[in-house]
Each structure stands twice: as C-alpha cells, then as structure tokens.
C-alpha cells in the first residue's frame, strides 16, 4: 500500500498531466453535476476555493452560483491562529491578496467572516478520494483542523454539507485514514456525484 505522501505525489502527477482542453471540459461537467442536485441548490451560503496546482477549476461553479444569487465565501488563512482557515464573503469585485502559499484570497476583513457552522455547503479541495467518502488533502491539515469542531455540534443535521471536488482520475480504491481526517458527505467529479451515509 502506498503511503499518504506517495499517494499525494501520484495523484498530483495525474491531475497535472491533464491537458488544458480536458481541464476545461472537466470543470464544466463538474459544475453541471453540482447544479443538478436540488438539495444543494436550495441552499444559500456556499464556501468554495480558488483552484491551484492543477485542481479541477472551480471558476465555472463559482460563476454559476453567483448567477443563482448564492452567497459565496472563500477560505483565508487565519490571521491569528496558525494552521486554521476562516471563510470570508466573496464577490468578484472585492480586492484580493496572495497568501504565503501563493494562493489568492480575499483581503482580510473581519466583518465579512462567516462562522463555519453557519455555512450550508463547504466545497473542499482534495488530492485523492475513495468510495467511502474519505478525503486526502495536501498534508497541511488546514481543512481538517478547521472543520473538526463540527463533529461536536448537537444538531448534526444542521451542520454544513462537506463536499469534495475532484477530477475522475483522483479516485483511489481505499485511502489510508488518519484519526483527524474529516469524511465528506459527498464527492463531485465531472462524471459522478457520490453521496455517503454519515456513521
């Protein structure tokens, strides 16, 4: 079995090998997968992310949700607590900055932050996923740490839906799991939308 780091390397190479045309068509197909889910599209507050390192392009989905008058939030590195994310309201007209990882994020504004538990849907990046709803991230643990408090809320049905976004080629038969890994409620790819039962 490959180690978690070996899997990250393998999966990053897979998605980096995709042509620009494949990336473009995959992004459009992923967008349609999400838009075709009525229980998702009836929600209002969505956290997404700006794609990086050959991740599936979220721009079509961002534009579609904005056109549907949804409220969007992007992750920003927590300015006071290392290793955590905050989700800040986003509009295309807002000023952006580049964080220490070279990823664009909205310029910090405390009044625009949405508490994680008040989001309806959180779309997460991932390096790999399996058919149990397990997600393997880049290794920094930002999403796992940020989302962990949701496990302790008294009303699980009211917590955000966690949905991973990926290329088809990022599926793996069975991921090696760590205790801190946050499972997904669903995974969306260009060809499929998987849903997973909460344990």
UniProtKB/TrEMBL annotation:
GO molecular function, one term: 5-formyltetrahydrofolate cyclo-ligase activity
Gene3D superfamilies found in the cross-reference section: NagB/RpiA/CoA transferase-like
Catalytic reactions of this protein: (6S)-5-formyl-5,6,7,8-tetrahydrofolate + ATP = (6R)-5,10-methenyltetrahydrofolate + ADP + phosphate
Annotated keywords: ATP-binding, Ligase, Magnesium, Metal-binding, Nucleotide-binding
Cofactor requirements of the protein: Mg(2+)
Catalytic activity, EC: 6.3.3.2
EC category: ligase
Pfam families hit by this protein: 5-FTHF_cyc-lig
Similarity comment: Belongs to the 5-formyltetrahydrofolate cyclo-ligase family.
Record's protein name: 5-formyltetrahydrofolate cyclo-ligase
Organism name: Alishewanella maricola
């Amino acid at each position: 079995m490959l180690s978690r780091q070996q899997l990250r390397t393998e999966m990053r190479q897979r998605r980096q090998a995709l042509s620009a045309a494949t990336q473009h068509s995959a992004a459009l197909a992923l967008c349609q997968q999400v838009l075709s889910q009525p229980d998702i599209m009836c929600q209002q507050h969505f956290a997404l992310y700006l794609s990086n390192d050959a991740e599936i392009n979220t721009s079509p989905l961002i534009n579609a949700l904005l056109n549907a008058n949804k409220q969007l939030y992007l992750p920003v590195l927590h300015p006071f607590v290392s290793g955590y994310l905050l989700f800040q309201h986003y509009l295309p007209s807002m000023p952006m900055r580049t964080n220490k990882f070279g990823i664009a994020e909205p310029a910090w504004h405390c009044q625009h932050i949405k508490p994680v538990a008040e989001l309806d849907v959180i779309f997460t990046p991932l390096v790999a996923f399996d058919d149990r709803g397990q997600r393997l991230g880049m290794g920094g643990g930002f999403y796992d740490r940020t989302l962990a408090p949701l496990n302790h809320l008294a009303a699980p049905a009211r917590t955000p839906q966690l949905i991973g976004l990926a290329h088809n080629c990022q599926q793996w038969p069975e991921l090696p799991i760590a205790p801190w890994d946050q499972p997904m409620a669903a995974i969306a790819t260009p060809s499929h939308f998987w849903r997973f039962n909460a344990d």
